[in-house]
């Protein structure tokens, strides 16, 4: 399945338990391989247990946590 980066921007992020984390604001890629590393989430200042907001108040979720990409992106934290 092919997904464009532009298709991900603005998508809602939820957990398998239905917890809404926010919307994708940006993506971080590894510069030498182009591998997607991190989803940067505009979470309205909310960080789930075990996670912290960055200096800009955004939530960073490793791309490895992504389990499904459809109308929304589901992650397992």
Can you offer a commentary on this structure?
The structure is a single chain. With 77 residues, the chain is mainly beta. It has a single domain, classed as PRC-barrel domain (SH3 type barrels). Helix content is 5%, strand content 42%. Strands 4-3-2-1-6-5 form a six-stranded mixed sheet, with no helix packed on it. The longest helix has 4 residues. The radius of gyration is 12 Å and the shape is globular. The mean pLDDT is 90.
How would you sum up this structure in a few lines?
The chain is 5% helix and 42% strand.
What is the H-and-E element order? Answer: HEEEEEE
CATH topology annotation: SH3 type barrels
Q: Identify the CATH class.
A: Mainly Beta
Structural class: mainly beta
User: For the report, how would you describe the main beta sheet?
Assistant: 6 strands, mixed
How far do the termini sit from each other?
A: 23 Å
Number of strands: 6
Tell me the overall shape.
globular
| Low-confidence spans | none
Q: What is the helical fraction, as a range of percent?
A: under 10%
Tell me the β content. 35-45%
Q: Name the average pLDDT.
A: 90
Within CATH, the superfamily carries the name: PRC-barrel domain
Rg (CA only): 12 Å
Number of helices: 1
In total, how many domains does the architecture comprise?
A: 1
CATH architecture: Roll
Largest sheet: spatial strand order: 4-3-2-1-6-5
């Amino acid at each position: 399945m092919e997904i464009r980066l532009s298709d991900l921007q603005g998508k809602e992020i939820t957990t398998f338990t239905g917890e809404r984390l926010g919307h994708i604001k940006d993506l971080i890629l590894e510069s030498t391989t182009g591998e997607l590393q991190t989803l940067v989430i505009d979470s309205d200042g909310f960080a789930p247990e075990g996670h912290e907001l960055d200096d800009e108040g955004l939530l960073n979720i490793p791309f490895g946590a992504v389990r499904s990409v459809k109308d929304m992106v589901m992650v397992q934290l």
